[in-house]
């Protein structure tokens, strides 16, 4: 049975604007471009086949990300790379401010960091940290939407984000020191 | 009368404040605190620079054109009743 042309048109009109977001989130979850493409393609096909269950004008992005995430968990996660161990001591909420206090308290070093290094630092986070950082700080989803998507309370989203950002900022700071964008605290 | 907020409490809610995820009452307390606290004002700029890095640089990554085309072709084939 061929869906009518207007169905395909309405699907494309609502879904395609979110393709970049799906690809970025898919890439962070799946780990490489090839697997990300497969994951996004599977997501789009599932979304297309379930299009009659989607209520037009509701949140297409959240609906699509839910399909993407479920597809990843059910079909892709087994092959995923092992997460890099993270130093949770770095998650002290004030540590990063103390580290930069003498040299770059406003964090202007962030603007020197190149895209690949941002992605490498995000990819080094454990999956549960990686996904909240990507959904919140890259894709700018509201906390409530992230909570619905991950099936966890908003308070848990916030606490995960706090810890994830501290670890990520610490990693970006270390990189900035190694690259000579800022001097380490000990040198001051 | 607004309650005075200390630095640690301000830092705790800084991101929620920057993302407009706090109540108007908390937002007012944060504003009042950073107006008189240089350290926390630095922290606000620090977090803004961090968010700018992730929002701008990270978001610059897009779905490659050839991937977009392959996905569209698969969808259109599925729409014709094909079974990819």
Written account of the structure:
The complex is a heterodimer of chains A (188) and B (84). In chain A, α3 (33-49) crosses α4. Chain A has helices spanning 5-15, 19-30, 33-49, 60-76, 95-100, 115-123, 127-138, 143-150, 154-178. Chain A is elongated, with a radius of gyration of 19 Å. Chain A is mostly helical. The longest helix of chain A has 25 residues, at 154-178. The N and C termini of chain A lie far apart (71 Å). Chain B is mainly α. In chain B, 70% of the residues lie in helices and 0% in strands. Chain B has 5 helices and no strands. In chain B, α3 packs across α4 (38-57). The model of chain B has no long low-confidence stretch (mean pLDDT 88).
Summarize the SSE layout with pairings.
The complex is a heterodimer of chains A (188) and B (84).
Chain A: H1 5-15, H2 19-30, H3 33-49, H4 60-76, H5 95-100, H6 115-123, H7 127-138, H8 143-150, H9 154-178
Helix pairs in contact in A: 2-3, 2-4, 2-7, 3-4, 4-8, 6-9, 7-9, 8-9
Chain B: H1 7-12, H2 14-18, H3 24-36, H4 38-57, H5 65-79
Helix pairs in contact in B: 3-4
Summary?
Chain A has about 190 residues and is an all-alpha fold.
Essential attributes:
heterodimer, A: 188 residues, mainly alpha, 0% strand, elongated, B: 84 residues
Order of helices and strands of chain A, N to C?
HHHHHHHHH
Helix content of chain B: over 70%
Which descriptor suits the 3D outline of chain B? Answer: elongated
Uncertain segments of chain A: none
First-to-last CA distance of chain B? 65 Å
